[in-house]
Amino acid sequence: MAHRIVYIAGSGRSGSTLLDRLLGQLPRWWSCGELAHIWSRGFQHDQRCGCSKPFSRCPFWSQVRLDLAAGDADAAAHLQASVARLRHLPALLRPRGSFAAKLRRYQAILDRLHRAIARQSGATTLVDSSKSAQHLAVLAGLPHTELAVIHLIRDPRAVAFSWTRARRRPEVAKTIEMMPRYSAVRSGAEWQLMNVLCERIASRAHTCMRVHYEDLVRDPAGVLEHIAARLGAAYRPTARQRQREFDLGENHTVAGNPVRFDTGTVSIRGDDIWRTAASRRWQRLAGAASWPTARRYGYG
């Protein structure tokens, strides 16, 4: 069985859930959502799967759970807190001693998780849209795994504006919980940090490519064709897909943007409301906090 992970890296609010779900339309590709959150949001807190059922009652993840060893989920949650943190990034890139031993144990559980998902789904390629640099560093050290990285980038001003909007977390069913909100300066600075780190760590992958969100929403079929060609996958867009119309079925994504709950015909359109809704001063703040990386990526 082929063991390939396609990892979507970058900052939050960059369209990773949308790209994840679109890639899940490719033959024998499986959209996983943000697998870095499976131990806490799935196994521990029983949040909703992309199929809208609680994680514990989802038939797909129930079967995956049976494939894992007893205690894997609890052990993985503990090990993840010990090794897969942003502050541990230098150690992740050059693991030694006891840290290296804990990292190997965590990677072994991740490998079992990936293989269980592949067995239950029948897929040869798993799409993980966790985005973070620390999870990417963990995956880059997995033995016997072909890692491909899609570095997804979006205008930092659009990302920062998205972080100011009040949104409910639909995956939390028992209580009303809102998504976090951040200032323009913090969002811009974190955008720059995460993209720089992801770019550097992605060089450790077998394949790495850069995709701009603006290209994805303007020509999703063309972007999928480009990714499929790079990774040797068969994809021929339909006429409707050329018109940015996609039919999305039920999925079993672990975590991500609320778009993961959308099914049926979805019309792909860009979200540029920040250009008129955000003040010029606010846009300058967000832009200054992300300069000069934003300029290097083509955002003037």
> In what order do the strands lie side by side in the largest sheet?
2-3-1-4-5
CATH fold annotation:
Rossmann fold
Q: Span from first to last CA?
A: 45 Å
The second-level CATH architecture is: 3-Layer(aba) Sandwich
Approximate shape: globular
Unreliable runs? none
What is the strand content?
Answer: 5-15%
> For the residues shown, what is the average pLDDT?
94
Description:
The protein is α/β, with parallel strands linked by helices. It has one domain: Rossmann fold, CATH 3.40.50. 46% of the residues lie in helices and 13% in strands. The chain contains 15 helices and seven strands. The strands form two sheets. A five-stranded parallel sheet has the order 2-3-1-4-5, with helices on both faces. The chain has a two-stranded antiparallel ribbon with strand order 6-7. α4 crosses α6 and α8 (156-162) packs across α9 (184-201).
Kindly list the characteristics that best describe this protein:
300 residues; alpha/beta; Rossmann fold; 15 helices
Give a nutshell description of this structure.
This protein is α/β, with parallel strands linked by helices and 300 residues long. It is built from 15 helices and 7 strands.
SSE topology sketch:
Layout: E1 4-9, H1 16-23, E2 29-31, H2 38-44, H3 59-67, H4 72-83, H5 89-93, H6 97-121, E3 125-131, H7 133-140, E4 146-153, H8 156-162, H9 184-201, E5 207-212, H10 213-218, H11 220-230, H12 239-242, E6 245-248, E7 264-267, H13 274-277, H14 280-290, H15 293-296
Parallel strand pairs: 1-3, 1-4, 2-3, 4-5
Antiparallel strand pairs: 6-7
Helix pairs in contact: 2-4, 3-6, 4-6, 7-9, 8-9, 9-14
